[in-house]
Amino acid sequence: MITTAFMVKRVFSMPLRGLQGFMNSVFKLAQLPLLYPHYSYINKRAKTAMFRVKKLLGGTLSLRNYNAQVGETYAMIKALNKLTVLGMPKTIVIA
Question: Based on the structure, what is the number of domains in the chain?
Fold first, then answer.
């Protein structure tokens, strides 16, 4: 969730406080019972998470057209989600 939010922050050039409100609004519109973490908590995670994103996917958006940048960001998010799923351990119920 944090990495995806940083992609949104990057596309819309939002400050962290604005990002917190935006993500809470998205959750509310989607009728999800979630709250986005406080921006000060996110700020502590920002350096590590953004370093990983930049290292994996490059430091900047390469396309100049806004719609193309949105598509590029969606592709980055999809790649990150795929990497996250691959890195998650599989749980097995032991009865």
Answer: 1
Residue that the structure tokens 């953004």 belong to: 50
Residue ranges making up the domain that contains 61 = 2-87
Report d(CA 76, CA 7) in Å as an integer: 8
Instruction: Say how far apart CA 39 and CA 18 lie, in whole Å.
Output: 9
95 in any annotated domain: no
What pLDDT digit, counting tens, does each position of 62-72 carry?
Answer: 777 878 877 88
At 18, which amino acid appears?
G
Q: Cα(20)–Cα(39) distance, rounded to whole angstroms?
A: 6
Residue 3 CB contacts under 8 Å (≥ 6 apart), including other chains: 49, 52, 53, 77, 80, 84
pLDDT band, very low/low/confident/very high, at 51 (cuts 50, 70, 90): low
